[in-house]
Amino acid sequence: MNAPTDRFPYLHEAKAPAGAEGWERMYPYFLVSQPEGRDFEQDRFWFADSMHWSRAVHPFDSIGAEAVYYGCGVNGARSIVLPAALGLDVRMVNGFVYICPQAVSDPAEIQRRLALFQERAGHYYKNWDSLYANWKEK
To answer: Distance (Å, rounded) from C-alpha 37 to C-alpha 109?
Structure first.
């Protein structure tokens, strides 16, 4: 455990604390790293979101993290169409929430998404004063 390493541990390298073996069975399968996705997950940057989820999340409360990150992902990737982002992926590890940004790396796809972003975000910049006035009135 004290051996020097030149990288962060992979998502699946976190060991369960004594007595917590099999914790994965308590969470939905899509929130837990699966063997068939291991190679894909190893090539991504996962980090514990200890700012928003500082404690382990109870199994039935995992819907909170799931909904937040999938909602943010859909909003950024499909509604606003951020050019270089496809949202966030989420996993549970020993009860803790881990997230990973999903980046767009193909320059042609980024350009395609940029045109959509400029159209959608541009609407708000062009109409900011009237949109803000209507919001205040509501």
So the answer is: 24
Beta-strand pair 85-93/96-103? antiparallel
| C-alpha span between 96 and 92 (Å, rounded) | 5
**92, 98 in Cβ contact below 8 A?**
yes
Sign of CA dihedral 81, 93, 11, 24: negative
Question: How far separated are the first and last CA of the chain, in Å rounded?
Answer: 58
pTM summary value: 0.79
Place of tokens 């929130």: 31
Per-residue model confidence as pLDDT tens digits over 13-32:
888 889 989 999 999 999 99
Q: Which residue has the tokens 């950024």?
A: 76
- Kind plus residue range of the DSSP H or E element containing 131: helix 128-137
φ/ψ of residue 87, rounded to 5: 95, -160
